[in-house]
Specification:
Blueprint: H1 2-28, H2 34-49, H3 71-80, H4 96-108
Helix pairs in contact: 2-4, 3-4
Bound molecules: heme C (HEC).
Residues 41, 44-45, 47-49, 57-59, 61, 74, 77-78, 82, 85-88, 90, 102 line the site of heme C.
């Protein structure tokens, strides 16, 4: 019984510590810069997908060809890449919010 209580005490300490981190993460997230992200899409993504995103080494990623994806799936593909292909993970370079912005941008073809 005493062991169980010690376990739960530890658990609540862990929970408190991880909750304490949440606001800090939000505070550190840089604001979205649409112009910079558009540049990244057309230059960096464009180096494989074509400057107009019509396809090159990577496939066509214009809105009309991405209709079968939702924003969440695209966000994960952008953050984690596509394993065993040339599609790289962008997680080291951009935030989750920026990946979501790019996903929405790809789906709508313009800034949301
Ligand atoms: C080094 C080349 C390269 C770069 C840079 C790159 N991609 Fe890709 N991408 C690929 C390749 C190759 C595929 C196809 C993978 C496969 O065979 O499924 C792909 C697939 C995709 C797909 C899935 C398309 C589909 O219909 O299956 C999306 C969406 C995508 N990339 C978005 C992006 C975005 C957004 C960026 C920039 C943040 C980016 N890519 C940068 C090479 C690249």
């Amino acid at each position: 019984m005493a062991k169980t209580r010690a376990f739960f005490t530890q658990l609540s300490v862990v929970a408190a510590v991880s909750l304490a981190h949440v606001p800090a993460v939000f505070a550190d997230a840089p604001p979205i810069d649409p112009d910079a992200l558009k540049r990244l899409v057309h230059q960096d993504c464009g180096s494989c997908h074509g400057l107009t995103l019509k396809g090159g080494l990577g496939p066509d990623i214009r809105p009309e060809t991405l209709t079968h994806f939702d924003a969440e799936t695209l966000e994960m593909m952008i953050l984690d890449g596509i394993p065993d292909t040339a599609m790289p993970p962008w997680r080291p370079l951009i935030t989750q919010e920026e990946a979501r912005w790019i996903a929405d941008y790809l789906l709508t073809g313009d800034a949301p």
